[in-house]
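Researcher: I'd like a candidate sequence for this fold, 807 residues long. If you have to choose between options at a position, lean toward the conservative one.
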């Protein structure tokens, strides 16, 4: 069994990101960099939880492999590739492994209850939210893995969302701010509503509630709040159990502040944002309007014109959720899609109110992501392809952002571009990822063998997410909001609107009226002067105040517009760079292809040249063979002569007496013989190597001969086949000739018959004329025809026949 090292595991299809535009998140790998963090900043890796859905009845009765997912302990799970999965096939080819191990912050098995999941996952984020910080939870996984079940739950098993709402109302207790005049504004601000606007808010809310049925719909399964809306229309009768200790940090009524809860519910489908709390959505004819994602001027993205509804009870929250879900499925049906193809986001904003001003805003978003399955090219086309592309794109961008965040933190020096702005989803949650809140992910998987490959992909994605370190600034979000400051450095904007008190101080009379204004007053009488001066002073003050307010507004607008422009140009630059990258990539690929072709061509040419070099014509080969034979003969002759010579030397000299006298001569002879034998040996070796070469040549030529004879055989077979065909054709021709001869013979016979007929006719014509008979017979007709050939057609026919035959 092999174990996956998560630090190297990077199965996600992510491209490298290399632009020099960094997000505010700080690297955490060096102590020096850590020292640069704000003193109260908190660091921790992103929490990634795994939830394994139980098998459904149908899945249990299936004969599929049911051991793909093995939970080893509360933090480790292993995935075993089942038969037929692409992963197993690849591992059998030696690519990748068939068993993968992953670790998570915590793993929740199939038997785990919703309440336990809430306690162990959301608790810390819940207290963050109640404490004025932002929180984001997103559920990620393939379709049918249990994402919606985890977020919303069922009437009997409420999910995280109803539990968060319930806990929030429990925390607020009796401190609910009932006036609706303080409303969330932009991303992090709030604004005052005038009485008319409050009225509008109330009627909008009432119209939504009027369209939601009061009774619970038993057929709708996935809204955990529905049971609460029936049973808990007041806060005191909450049926959800949760750990009360999370609320202990702010005991009820401690500082006299109140709370208002506003919620929004929207979805992102095909890279368009749609409000799920818009009543118009329910009508079939109207096309729903897409909302824009804008920047609030401080780099925080928000959905422009998104409907925020103030809720005062859990029952109201339930109705909104029901309304939004209905809208979502109605829109999905209308567009012939499945709601699981869109990302749905439920956001709560908790406003802490002291007196009549908002002192703190915190946000809790629960994001039910679209099914993460990659598009199957064989089945996906047209609108579905675009849809799959957009889902994949936003999830891919989410993956890219997470990887870039991880890489930046791991690298510590090089900060790479984090493409938050490339999708609506990441653009909206950029602030949370960059430290203005805490994000966590619940990965949902099922244990089905049929979706194993996709599940593995999901696990790899989460392995990367788990390594992201979040640096969370321990400051309320308000401090990060844009602000105009006065000369004393105090902000002039409060919750997005100009603060009248600060403005009073800023526009002091002394500052506004200078000496020039005083100078002209000496020309008038004292009383008149006094009155005029007072009225003028009041007018002037009012005018200058108005002007300054206007100036500040213009400055703010200009600042926002410039920032917007800067961001747009940055986006454009990113797009251009991407395009350039793509075109360079394409060029590079083309050049590579050209080189590949050239190398192939060269290899082919070299092979052909070698073939030509090695080619030996047959007559040359035979001549070479003869030469080899001759050389062999020569070698054997030389060998025999050498042995004779050596033999002669070995024989003792018969005449011993001549030994002394001949010793010198013998020595000389021996030296000569030695030299000769050496020469002969060398020659022999050379000849042997030549022989060997020739032998090789012979072998190759024999092989070639064999090939040739095979080809000859083939040619002969072909020839035989052809000659057989020829024989058949010959037979046919013979038959035709024979038939022609028969025709000729017949025509000769006919000629002869005609000649004899002619002779007979001649005889007949010389005979005396016969008296014509009343009744004319055949003979009379013939005679007439012979006598006047022009009139008689048989005669003409006869001549014609003769002519044709002769031809
Ligand atoms: N932990 C669980 N315990 C019991 N039933 C579950 C669990 N998780 C999911 N289910 C059931 O499995 C089915 C599919 O779940 P759900 O609709 O939540 O999947 P999903 O991932 O949201 O799918 P989609 O992406 O299509 O919306 C539902 O019937 C749900 O009730």
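Model: Candidate sequence:
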């Amino acid at each position: 069994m092999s174990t996956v090292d998560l630090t190297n595991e990077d199965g996600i299809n992510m491209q490298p990101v290399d632009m020099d535009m960094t997000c505010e998140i700080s690297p955490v790998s060096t102590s020096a960099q850590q020292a640069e963090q704000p003193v109260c900043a908190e660091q921790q890796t992103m929490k990634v939880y795994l939830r394994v859905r139980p098998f459904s009845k149908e899945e249990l009765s299936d004969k599929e492999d049911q051991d793909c997912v093995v939970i080893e302990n509360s933090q480790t799970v292993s995935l075993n590739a089942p038969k037929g999965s692409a992963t197993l096939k690849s591992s059998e080819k030696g690519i990748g492994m068939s068993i993968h191990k992953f670790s998570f912050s915590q793993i929740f098995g199939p038997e785990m209850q919703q309440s336990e999941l809430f306690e162990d996952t959301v608790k810390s984020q819940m207290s963050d939210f109640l404490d004025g910080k932002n929180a984001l939870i997103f559920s990620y996984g393939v379709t049918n893995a249990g994402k919606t079940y985890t977020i919303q739950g069922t009437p009997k098993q409420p999910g995280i969302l109803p539990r968060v709402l319930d806990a929030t109302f429990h925390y607020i207790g009796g401190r609910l701010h009932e006036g609706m005049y303080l409303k969330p504004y932009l991303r992090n601000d709030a604004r005052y509503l005038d009485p008319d606007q409050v009225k509008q808010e109330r009627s909008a809310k009432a119209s939504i509630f009027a369209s939601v049925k009061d009774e619970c719909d038993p057929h709708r399964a996935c809204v955990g709040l529905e049971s609460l809306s029936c049973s808990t229309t007041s806060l005191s009768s909450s049926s959800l159990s949760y750990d009360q200790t999370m609320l202990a940090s702010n005991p009820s009524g401690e500082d006299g502040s109140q709370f208002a809860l506003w919620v929004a519910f929207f979805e992102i489908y095909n890279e368009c944002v749609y409000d799920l709390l818009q009543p118009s959505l329910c009508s079939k004819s109207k096309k729903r309007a897409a909302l824009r994602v804008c920047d609030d001027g401080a780099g925080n993205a928000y959905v422009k014109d998104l409907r925020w509804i103030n809720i005062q009870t859990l029952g109201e929250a339930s109705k909104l959720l029901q309304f939004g879900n209905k809208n979502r499925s109605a829109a999905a049906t209308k567009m012939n899609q499945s709601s699981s193809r869109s990302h749905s986001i439920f956001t709560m904003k908790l406003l802490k109110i002291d007196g009549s001003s908002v002192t703190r805003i915190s946000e809790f978003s629960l994001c039910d992501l679209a099914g993460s399955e990659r598009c199957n090219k064989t089945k996906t086309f047209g609108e579905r392809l675009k849809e799959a592309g957009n889902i994949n794109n936003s999830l891919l961008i989410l993956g890219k952002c997470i990887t870039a965040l991880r890489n930046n933190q791991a690298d510590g020096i090089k900060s790479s571009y984090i493409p938050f702005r490339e999708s609506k989803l990441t653009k909206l949650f950029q602030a949370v990822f960059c430290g203005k809140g805490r994000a966590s992910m619940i990965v949902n998987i099922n244990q089905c063998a049929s979706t194993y490959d996709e599940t593995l992909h999901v696990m790899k994605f989460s392995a990367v997410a788990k390594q992201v370190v979040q640096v969370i600034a321990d400051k309320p979000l308000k401090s990060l909001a844009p602000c105009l400051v006065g000369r004393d450095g105090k902000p002039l904007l409060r919750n997005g609107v100009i603060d009248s008190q600060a403005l009073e101080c800023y526009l002091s009379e002394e500052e506004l009226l200078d000496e020039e204004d005083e100078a002209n007053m000496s020309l008038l009488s004292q009383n008149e002067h006094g009155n005029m001066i007072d009225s003028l002073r009041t007018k002037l003050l009012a005018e200058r105040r108005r002007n300054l307010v206007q100036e500040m507004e213009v400055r703010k607008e200009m600042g926002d517009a410039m920032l917007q422009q800067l961001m747009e140009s940055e986006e454009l630059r990113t797009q251009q760079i991407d395009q350039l990258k793509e075109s360079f990539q394409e060029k590079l690929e083309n050049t590579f292809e050209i080189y590949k072709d050239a190398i192939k061509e060269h290899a082919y040419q070299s092979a052909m040249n070698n073939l030509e070099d090695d080619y030996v014509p047959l007559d040359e080969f035979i001549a070479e063979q003869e030469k080899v034979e001759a050389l062999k003969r020569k070698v054997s002759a030389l060998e025999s002569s050498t042995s004779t010579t050596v033999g002669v030397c070995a024989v003792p000299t018969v005449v011993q007496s001549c030994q002394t006298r001949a010793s010198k001569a013998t020595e000389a002879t021996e030296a000569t013989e030695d030299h000769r034998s050496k020469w002969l040996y060398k020659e022999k070796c050379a000849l042997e190597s030549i022989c060997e070469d020739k032998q090789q040549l012979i072998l190759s030529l024999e092989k070639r001969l064999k090939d040739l004879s095979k080809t000859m055989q083939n040619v002969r077979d072909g020839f035989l086949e052809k000659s057989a065909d020829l024989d058949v054709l010959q037979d046919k021709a013979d038959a035709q000739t024979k038939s022609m001869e028969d025709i000729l013979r017949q025509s000769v016979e006919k000629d002869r018959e005609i000649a004899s007929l002619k002779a007979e006719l001649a005889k007949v014509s010389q005979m005396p004329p016969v008296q014509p008979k009343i009744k004319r017979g055949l003979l009379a007709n013939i005679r007439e025809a012979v006598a006047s050939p022009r009139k008689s057609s048989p005669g003409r026919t006869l001549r014609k026949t003769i002519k044709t035959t002769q031809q």
